[in-house]
Amino acid sequence: MMELYKQLPHLEPYGDLQYFLYVIVATLPIFIGLFFKKRFALYEVLVSLFFIVTMLVGGKTNQISALILYVIWQVLLISFYKRYRKQRDSKWIFYLVSFLSLLPIVFVKVSPAIHGPQSLFGFLGISYLTFRAVGVIVELRDGVIKDLTIRQFLRFLLFMPTFSSGPIDRFKRFNENYETIPERDELMDMLEEAVKYIMLGFLYKFILAHVLGEILLPPLKNLALQTGGFFNHYALAVMYTFGLDLFFDFAGYSMFALAISNLMGIHSPINFNKPFLSRDLKEFWNRWHMSLSFWFRDFVFMRMVMVMTRKKIFKNRNVTSSVAYVVNMLIMGFWHGVTWYYIAYGLFHGIGLVINDAWVRKKKRSIKNGKKLERVPYLRIAGFSCLAWLSPSMS
Q1: Membrane spanning segments where (predicted)?
Q2: Residue 211 and residue 359: Cα distance in Å, rounded?
Q3: Binned average pLDDT, 10 residues per bin, the chain of 395 residues
Q4: Domain boundaries, given as residue ranges, for the chain
Q5: CB neighbour burial string for 72-107, b if at least 16 within 10 angstroms, e if fewer
Q6: Positive or negative CA dihedral for 333, 338, 342, 343?
Q7: Which of 17, 220, 226, 337 reaches 20 to 30 Å from 321, CA-CA?
Q8: How far apart are CA 23 and CA 17, in angstroms?
Q9: pTM of the predicted protein model
């Protein structure tokens, strides 16, 4: 079986024209079936498995075996907790199952920092699959998900268009969307939207990100290093160029994922909404990598606030939210990677959100015209956000 895997071509998701040709041809029958109110469930499974396998072949580690073990692990945890939750509700069992669900990604993130080489448990997309799996456990505990089958869970966990890098969906929304076949008018709107997303994605990822990341960034890095000093004008240019390169590359990828999701009859959540037009840092995180920031907001930040408020750890609710901001963003920094600059990135944004809230509270009475603040948001928000990316951009 492994020899058969090795013979398959490696297809980088949304990486070149060959991939788009294959994926559009493969998903076209799914769209046609939806047009006639049919879901070709078995065909969808085969298409998804083909593209997931071709994403993973050709890596340095045995990613396919790692994925199989990972899926079995998560299925066992979900099956156990689903049965347990129908009878009892111990918070310690919930914490234990959540921790065990997170354990593979913890190994993957920590292993390179300790041993150097990539973890044997790692595979492309493990972070985003973990967000989905843990989200299911949390929503089972909350009662948002009343029941689910293994088939439904696997369909959600292994949804091909968003497998490698999101956007991060929620099970209840996804499952309701999947089980409701859109009407023909809506399908045609989804097709039109898919074409728009693909065209914008090509502009963002293959033109703008290429110009910024491959043409402008390398000479700017050299000039910044040659100029020397702790900070200089070229370093400032590197900071903004890298931030914009990151945005256009990832936003372009997200648009491709939305387009292919549409062809499969699914409205995946958007990831970016003009983040550099935000009026403050808090709004920036409501516009930047939205599916990730909303996941952390709902499943980490809000739960920390509720626990600290219920246990009366801090008397002042502003202190409570400030601590939750910093811890939340630190965890997000660790998720990006166990390196000093990603940890600093999380701390930087956590403290920034605390300062942002304090400033808003202080100026709340004097701010009467919101539109006035919207005139010059780019340099302020982009500057603060890109500053946190300066260290990785210089590496």
Answers
A1: 20-36, 41-58, 64-81, 93-114, 120-138, 197-217, 318-336, 342-360
A2: 37
A3: 64 92 96 95 95 82 88 97 92 96 92 67 91 97 93 97 94 96 95 97 97 93 81 82 91 97 96 88 90 95 93 90 95 86 88 88 63 49 58 55
A4: 1-181, 183-250, 273-394
A5: ebbeebbeebbebbeeeeeeeebeebbebbbebbee
A6: positive
A7: 337
A8: 10
A9: 0.90
